[in-house]
Design goal:
The complex is a heterodimer of chains A (740) and B (356).
Chain A (H helix, E strand, L loop, with lengths): L8 H14 L27 H7 L6 H15 L4 H25 E2 L2 E2 L2 H7 L11 H20 L7 H29 L8 H9 L2 H4 L12 H29 L5 H9 L7 H11 L4 H9 L11 H26 L2 H9 L4 H30 L2 H6 L6 H10 L5 H27 L20 H27 L3 E3 L3 E4 L2 H7 L2 E3 L2 E3 L5 H31 L5 H12 L3 H12 L10 H24 L4 H9 L4 H12 L1 H17 L4 H4 L7 H10 L3 H26 L23
Antiparallel strand pairs in A: 1-2, 3-4, 5-6
Helix pairs in contact in A: 1-3, 1-6, 3-4, 4-6, 6-7, 7-19, 7-22, 7-23, 7-24, 10-14, 10-16, 10-20, 12-20, 14-16, 15-16, 16-19, 18-19, 18-24, 19-24, 21-31, 22-25, 22-28, 23-25, 25-28, 26-27, 28-31, 30-31
Chain B lengths: L10 E10 L2 E11 L4 E5 L6 H9 L6 E6 L2 E2 L10 E4 L11 H11 L4 H14 L15 H13 L5 E5 L7 H18 L2 E6 L2 H7 L2 E6 L2 E6 L1 H6 L4 H6 L4 E11 L2 E6 L2 E6 L6 E7 L4 E4 L7 E10 L4 E7 L2 E7 L11 E6 L4 E4 L2
Parallel strand pairs in B: 3-8, 3-9, 6-7, 7-8
Antiparallel strand pairs in B: 1-2, 1-4, 4-5, 9-10, 11-12, 11-14, 12-13, 14-20, 15-19, 16-17, 16-19, 17-18
Classes of the chains: A mainly alpha (740), B alpha+beta (356).
Bound molecules: adenosine-5'-diphosphate and magnesium ion.
Magnesium ion (MG) binds next to loops of chain A.
Chain lengths: 740, 356
């Protein structure tokens, strides 16, 4: 038997040592250089290591990490047995985390954060910046010491890798989702100076701009909360109906062009969200072709009806019908044909079968589709910002509270809080709907029945709703793209490539290539950040999926819940939360590329988790166990056994996180900075300035790029190799060894 | 895998128990598996066999108690840290690796160079009779061949203890019979300690040195196949180890360790097994029941309910004053008819007293 007592821990201690003693503890405000990394010898306190700051610059609160380092030394080098080392590691790790946390949360850039400490501990004449490389390394090292200690004491199945993975994932969710959201709450419930809390709350939460119902009885606008709910309800209803029609046509009729219908559903996924809005403007807008045609033919001005509720609703229905379709097609296919066949043999006529059997069986699925779209509509930012006009919804209102004429973070936080409540409510209703008996009856026994057709009138109804819509969708896309190739839509229809030229011109200067086009910088940033974020997202997501489906440990359900919850926090809420949280010490990230990457990773990770868990549930658990009994380390098991079998899920997670990072606007629009502009934000600014041609040219390039990237990812990951007789391979299929 | 005999290690469980929430999957139990022996865990579905095996493997942590392998305490060691290998019910062959890669997997895990590991794997593959199939994927093998690969993969690490969880349940009846003999052969040849889970009592009887019968998360009895069949500790073991009738009787007298047991009109002598006078449980194997003419003295009166011709033997359901009995008679030619009244005698072996 090998002795695993000490393996790895000395290295951890050395990392902590680097973080506390050598490297600069805080962020380097004057930029990064190799010489500045030797924080122990720094001349300025802000550039010194924790030990140096505590010993030489009187920053006594940084003795905390030093003490924890000493405790860790004892744990790693001076203990004898596995058990005592475990206990000592737990103490040292916990001390390190809490002392680092305490000093960070108590002392900000200008001394004490909270007046209470000043009263109790006296005035503090100095402050500190956010945590830098030293602090971050030390934090990580102490976290891993804590998890190693817990593993040595038998938690997490005694597995250090599992313990570390759970620790890192839980800590990062705490740091990058829960803490920012909690900060929003704090802001919303904090009175501005010179106001009482009750009054501030009343005026914020109860304002007519949020809850007003004036639109019901006068020409004035209603509150944004009602607008948001009305829009979400209308969008969800329409998309559910459309999605159902498409699902029925694809699964239950002999419609000849099914494959094209399916393609139509993939398109919106790789489209930046405002392309559809643009297409609508080009058709129905003031200078859109319909308006132009009407005024030319009849001399009638149709007006601005597309700007406002109508337009946003239309755009959202275009954008989210595919989502509803994807949810519903699973449901419609999942209904076991034998149920309908049974009804037929009981002499029910087709209409009765449809009404009494098929439709009720689909009810939970319909409810689910409705709620999924409802949440997406709540969170949508791209469509309302382009088409909303004076019609405000919560997500745009939050944006204007932060970037508008009067910046009011309290108000932004309040609105974000309300939006979050709506999203959470929908999320919980959805969970309880799905949690109830799902009627999808995929038995794995190879149902022998035939999918029954649907009654004629249902089929005709589905055709008459879905096909015109499909046509309209194609038109919108075609026109949206055509807009990139004419001079000025509506006024000067001369074909041109000038928009592409303005965006993507390349010159040859004295020093080689000059990226002269206006879009290059944001495009490079976008590709770079999406390229960095995608593997991180997929990696963390799949790791979390593996932990959740394969490991049993205390707090597993809590972790899963937190992950899924973080997915339903709307992007604008996250955006505001991030600026509020990461603009000040202890974690200063705003304006960096890092905050964008973090935002991508934690917004998109749940998809990796979901696809990973779905894939994992089809992999026999005894495969992992076999590897473990064959002496493979947990890490090797993951790398050599689990990952190769998860290739399809890896592709999904990579593609999704890459595409989302390229196309998202809502959270990102708060977080971009001059150095780190993203493509979507660049485009939306062009749209707001009325420069549609360039916006469209850019969007078209993005779509092509994403298709190429998707192809590349697929090529790079490759196929799973399972052999010819895939369907008969034991051990591969879900045959849990729990039998007799 | 060179065939020279290496003594396996002793496995010792002390007060081992497993709890899932409120469910006791395994109640505290003690068990010693002698080095180099093959011990089966036998019992009905859900009685905790797999859980117990997985605790020995280190795939499941014990809730209570200690596990010692070869004298060393392994309770806190993970599966990879114990010198134990396991053959899974589903084989758990890695579907994306060739047979050779599968078998070499453990060797590579232990840090052996790939070329050397593959050579050794090839040997192991030959040992289980699959020479030349090293390049195949598991999906390109039959069920029996997959089973052998799983065994080779476990054996190549030369473990102190080899664990099997219902290894034959995915094979057809004929293959099961030959595979179990092969496993037993291999175990004897290599001298490795084996713990083998099954719910099939004939499989257990065929391969075991010792059988541990489990019921409802507890050990019901430990013994050699013969002990369990002939001297079951209780009704459960008796009925689980082969067909058995269970009736109530009365001990009239006990002398020299032999009891006179009354079943209605019949008085039968059998070992007392430390039971005293009074009502008692009696187990009767079907082949111990002898069908006699009605007028035979000292017999148990019975009426034939059904009689089934089975080729080599005949099977009867009989109504008697102590309850229904199932009997197997060797002579199929003198078949009785339903409604026939007969008298029953009992052989020396195959009828015994048990604790309830
Ligand atoms: N992971 C688990 N969680 C809860 N109960 C379990 C778990 N695994 C097994 N059990 C329960 O423990 C008992 C014993 O299971 P098992 O050892 O698989 O039985 P066997 O292999 O003898 O059929 C069963 O009642 C089963 O339901
Ligand atoms: Mg079992």
């Amino acid at each position: 038997m090998r002795d695993h007592k000490l393996a790895g821990n000395p290295l951890l201690w050395f990392v902590a040592f680097l973080g506390v003693v050598i490297l600069p503890w805080h962020v380097l405000e004057d930029g990064f250089s190799l010489a500045r990394l030797v924080g122990i010898a720094a001349a300025k306190p802000d550039e010194a290591s924790a030990l140096a700051q505590a010993a030489r610059f009187d920053r006594w609160w940084l003795w905390g990490p030093v003490i924890a380092l000493a405790l860790a030394f004892h744990a790693v080098f001076l203990t004898r047995s596995r058990a005592t080392q475990g206990d000592a590691l737990i103490v040292a790790g916990f001390a390190g985390l809490s002392l680092i946390g305490a000093q960070g949360w108590m002392i900000g850039a200008r001394g004490w954060y909270y007046p209470l400490f000043e009263v109790v501990l006296g005035a503090l004449p100095m402050g500190q910046y956010g945590i830098g490389i030293g602090g971050a390394l030390a934090f990580l090292a102490f976290l891993l010491m804590l998890t190693n200690g817990l593993a040595a004491r038998g938690a997490f199945g005694g597995d250090r890798f599992v313990a570390s993975a759970v620790g890192v994932i839980a800590a990062s969710i705490l740091l990058f989702t829960i803490w920012p959201v909690a900060t929003i709450l704090g802001q919303a419930f904090q009175a501005p100076k010179g106001d009482t809390l009750a009054h501030a709350l009343a005026s914020r939460f109860m304002s007519a701009r949020i809850w007003g119902i004036a639109c019901l009885y006068s020409g004035a606008a209603c509150g944004v909360a009602w607008n948001t709910l009305a829009l979400a309800t209308a969008t969800a209803t329409a998309t559910t109906i459309l999605g159902l029609c498409f699902a029925l046509i694809v699964t239950r009729t002999s419609f000849p062009a099914k494959e094209w219908l399916r393609l139509l559903t993939v398109l919106p996924i790789i489209t930046p969200p405002f392309v559809i809005g643009l297409g609508l403007i080009l058709i129905f807008g003031r200078s859109g072709i319909i308006n132009q045609a009407f005024s030319a033919l009849f001399g009638v001005e149709l007006g601005r009806w597309i700007y406002g509720f109508n337009g946003v609703w239309l755009a959202q229905v275009f954008s989210f019908t595919p989502t509803a379709f994807l949810v519903l097609i699973g449901i419609v296919q999942g209904i076991s044909p034998s149920m309908e066949e049974a009804a037929l043999t009981l002499h029910a006529r087709p209409t009765r079968v449809f009404k009494a059997v098929t439709l009720p069986l689909m009810m939970p699925g319909l409810a689910n589709a409705f709620l999924v779209v409802f949440v997406e509509s709540l969170a949508d930012f791209g469509n309302p910002i382009i088409l909303g006009g004076s019609f405000g919804v919560l997500s745009t209102e939050i944006f204007f509270a932060v970037v508008g004429a009067q910046v009011d973070f309290g108000r932004a936080a309040t609105l974000a809080f309300i939006l979050l409540l709506f999203a959470l409510a929908a999320f919980f209703i959805q969970r309880s709907v799905i949690g109830k008996r799902s009627y999808v009856s995929v038995t794995g026994k190879g149902d022998t029945g035939l999918q029954q057709g649907i009654p004629d009138w249902v089929r005709r109804l589905a055709y008459s709703i879905a096909l015109p819509w499909a046509l309209l969708t194609m038109t919108v896309y075609a026109l949206a793209l055509a807009g990139g190739f004419v001079k000025v839509w509506g006024r000067d229809w001369t074909p041109t490539f000038s928009h592409f030229g303005r965006a993507f011109a390349i010159d040859w200067g004295a020093n080689g290539i000059v990226w002269a086009g206006g879009a290059w910088s944001s495009l490079f940033t976008t590709i770079k950040l999406a390229g960095i974020a995608a593997p991180l997202t997929a990696g963390i997501g799949l790791l979390a999926a593996w932990l959740l489906s394969r490991q049993r440990f205390a707090g597993r359900t809590a972790l899963e819940f937190a992950l899924m919850l973080s997915f339903c926090v709307p992007g604008t809420v996250i955006g505001v939360a991030y600026i509020l949280t990461f603009n000040i010490p202890p974690v200063e990230l705003t304006g960096t590329a890092l905050i964008l990457i973090i935002c991508f990773v934690f917004r998109n990770m749940p998809v990796g988790v979901r696809s990973g868990m779905a894939a994992m549930s089809q992999l026999d658990k005894s495969l992992d166990e076999a590897a473990v009994t064959l002496r493979a380390s947990t890490f090797r098991t993951l790398r050599v056994v689990v990952l190769p079998l998860l290739k399809p899920a890896i592709v999904t997670a990579l593609v999704y996180s890459f595409v989302r990072a390229m196309t998202t606007v809502s959270a990102v629009i708060f977080l971009v900075s001059a150095q780190h502009e993203m493509a979507t934000v660049f485009i939306i600014n062009r749209v707001i300035n009325g420069d549609y041609g360039l916006a469209i040219a850019y969007a078209a390039v993005l779509i092509v790029l994403m298709m190429a990237a998707v192809g590349l990812i697929q090529l790079a990951i490759g196929e799973r190799r399972l052999g010819r007789r895939q369907d008969t391979a034991p051990g591969e299929v879900n045959r849990r060894s729990a039998g007799a | 895998m060179t065939g020279e005999k290496k003594q396996g290690a002793e496995v010792r469980l002390e007060g081992v128990a497993k709890r899932y929430g409120k469910v006791m999957a395994v109640k505290p139990l003690d068990l010693v598996v002698a080095p180099g022996s093959l011990v089966t865990l036998l019992g009905p579905s859900g009685c905790g066999k797999t859980t117990l095996l997985r605790m020995i493997a280190g795939l499941e942590r014990v809730s209570e108690g200690r596990i010692l392998i070869g004298g060393g305490d392994v309770t806190d060691l993970s599966a990879g840290e114990r010198n134990v290998s396991m053959v899974f019910q589903s084989y758990a062959l890695f579907p994306h690796m060739s047979v050779r890669e599968n078998v070499a997997f453990g060797l590579v895990s232990e840090g052996m160079a790939k070329a050397q590991a593959h050579a050794k794997a090839e040997e192991a593959v030959a040992t289980v009779g699959l020479a030349g199939l090293g390049d195949r994927l598991p999906s390109e093998l039959s069920g029996g061949q997959q089973q052998r690969v799983a065994v080779a993969r476990a054996l190549v690490l030369e473990p102190d203890v080899l664990l099997f969880d219902e290894p034959l349940s995915n094979l057809d009846a004929r293959l099961r019979r030959s595979m179990r003999e092969e496993i037993r052969d291999l175990q004897k040849r290599l001298g490795v300690t084996v713990v083998y889970v099954t719910h099939d009592q004939s499989e257990a009887l065929a391969v075991s040195d010792t059988i541990v019968v489990m019921n409802a998360a507890e050990i019901a009895q430990v013994g050699t196949p013969r002990e369990l069949y002939e001297e079951p500790a209780n009704v459960f073991v008796a009925t689980f180890m082969g067909e058995a009738n269970h009736v109530r009787g009365t001990i009239e007298t006990v002398r020299d360790g032999m009891a006179q047991v009354r079943l209605d009109t019949a008085l039968i002598e059998m070992p007392a097994r430390e039971l005293g006078e009074g009502p008692v449980d009696v187990v009767i194997r079907p082949e111990a029941v002898r069908l006699q003419p009605e007028d035979e003295a000292n017999g148990l009166a019975a009426t034939v309910l059904t009689a089934t011709y089975m080729g080599a033997h005949a099977e009867y359901n009989l109504e008697t004053p102590v309850g229904r009995l199932f009997a197997v008679a060797p002579e199929a030619d003198a078949l009785r008819k339903p409604g026939d009244r007969i008298s029953l005698g009992f052989g020396r072996r195959g009828i015994m007293l048990v604790k309830p």
